[in-house]
Amino acid sequence: TARPAASGFSRSSLYLEQGSSFFFDSALSFGDDEWLNWRDLIASMKIMHSSPAIALVLALSLTSVRAFAPQPTQIPRLLSRNHASRVRQASQGPLRAPAGVRLMALDEATGGGGSIDPQTIALIASPLVAAAFAFAFAFTNEKQKLADAGVEVKDFVPSVSLTENGKIQSKLRSVRLPSGFEALLISDPNVPNPTACLALKAGQWEEPAYASGLAHLCEHMLWGGDIMSKAAWTEALTRPRTTSYGMVMSDVRPGPGNKDKITQPLQTLAQQFYDTFFVDEVVIKEMKVLDSEFKFFKSNDANRIGNLFRDKTANPKHPFARFGIGNARTLSSSGKNPTDELQGFYDEWYSANLMRLVVASREDLSTMQDWVIRYFSEIPNRNAPESLSYDDMSPFDPTKTGNLFRVVPVAKNKRTIQFYIPFEAPRGSEYAESKPWRFLEAIMNVDDPSVSKYIEERRSEGILLRSPFGFFGITLTLTPQAERDPKAVEEVLGSIYRRLSNFRPGQKSPDTDFEREIDQLFGQFRTPQPIFDDFDMAPLDRPYTLVRRIAQDFLDVSAEEAITDSQTVRWDRAILSRFVERYMTPQNSQIFVAMPTYEAQALSKTAKRDGWQEDDIFGSFYKQEPLPKSIIQAFNQGVTETSMPAPAATPDTTQEPAK
């Protein structure tokens, strides 16, 4: 870059950056009798691998400059600081995957008087033009260089619009590093804040049976104040089969001056997984934090009932039967050193081949690709197993279902009914492709006029614990009248199973309005739904929830499948009917009814004789009994309902369980 300066030419720094790891820094000056020292430049550039052709182009260019010049004093000499060509390694460790060569010239005015004549400008431009040719040469070979370095890059476009405006604006790229680490990059102008989530294919089920809560403790140890101070919003979540770490960065516009606000949090995220060593003092302190979190967890009735469902439904041979949240007692009851156990868990499971990263921002794909290569290549591949012996084992025991549990709630003014209905959707099966639980989520959330006086709010959700196993949940918040009326619970349960019965094979409601509304609802679900709508929504956790879902799906499927999950569902009433007939039955359900009035019964002198028990982890009082026969009859008979309004289709209504 040349411009008039006070006393000759200004200082320029010529940056030749390969893989964001090297740069060449020099100065162009006038007024003395030294020739262009282009041989030093070539020698320096040969240090960079895959660069002989670039060096040759520059050599020919600079040689022609020397031959063209009328006298030496008009030729700029290439003078490095300290009068020698210098290459500085800008990143620690050896050069990783090269991401191409970039050229950028910067100048600083040095003061004085005078100007540069046109011939001099031509002389300066010649090597820069040659460098531009070199850049073009490198760009055309970028993918080959990446492939040679073991980096796999694939660009793809979604088959349908991912945003509500109907335009395909998202640019997508998958990157696989030699370590097995994979990333999905989303460049979209609608992303309000740069968002990232790293998902690990290991969670509560990978921890040893004698150390419940170890995966949760590891998440706490890795996700501290350093991360939180560099991002606008952060979250870490331990689940049965996955652990996720994510963040939403400050709202920044793309550009060199703002990249630190994105790259610093990403770099900090990556560094947690290089090689971390745990210290006793810090581990003990964090165990106390975990214990406090457990006490808070106990104060939520949904968590208490969820624990009862696990305890009363789990296959005893499956890790689902264990208490995954953990507390100080479960982490230290074995007598082994918790720090040693934690280090062993981290060293075994925090491996690059089990990690998937999703980054969404307004930056271009090449920029985000550089971030992935620069920061995440250091994560070691420990060759952790990607499948375990229990992957094909059901976490549920079918002999334990078909019960009703009466539970004393912690909240004294809240009445709820919660349904847990286990199901299986093996990969490649008609259930996995059509996802019938998504349709049931929509239809079960619609009010039923026959019991509206008893129900204040309803919510349903299908949750996959670990493919192919999941459960369908329905939560009903009841009115005070439901607590006063002894027939209310039975009537509400009957209404749920009558509605489900309408979708059994060969069952069709004589109510034509009802059937018409069902067909309309199916039509809405047949229309591909945009999955990036949340990018335009606040607060910050909404776009992150979307990115986290994609990252967790990415653990089990390809990048293309993870990004288009909502577009590839196949809605079919016949498949739904078979799903309902096989799984959505009273005999396959566990139903929990929580009423404040149960407390008097649970604390009475005859409580034990009446069947009341206390959960040994959460301290919940509950009573187990078989389902009323009227509920089974309601499902078998298929009594129809009156007409109901068709709800709006929602492609993903999954609500995360409380941590």
Briefly characterize the structure.
The chain has 659 residues and is an alpha+beta fold. It is 36% helix and 18% strand.
Q: What's the topology here?
A:
Layout: E1 11-18, E2 22-24, E3 27-29, H1 38-45, H2 52-68, E4 77-79, E5 87-89, E6 101-108, H3 118-140, H4 142-148, E7 152-156, E8 171-176, E9 182-187, E10 195-200, H5 214-222, H6 225-230, E11 233-238, E12 243-248, H7 260-271, H8 280-298, H9 301-313, H10 328-332, H11 338-349, E13 355-361, H12 365-376, E14 403-407, E15 416-424, H13 430-434, H14 436-444, E16 455-466, E17 469-478, H15 480-484, H16 488-501, H17 512-526, H18 541-554, H19 559-563, H20 573-583, E18 590-594, H21 598-602, E19 612-614, E20 621-626, H22 629-637
Parallel strand pairs: 9-13, 14-18
Antiparallel strand pairs: 1-6, 2-5, 3-4, 7-8, 8-9, 10-12, 10-13, 11-12, 14-20, 15-17, 15-18, 16-17, 19-20
Helix pairs in contact: 1-2, 2-3, 5-8, 5-11, 16-22
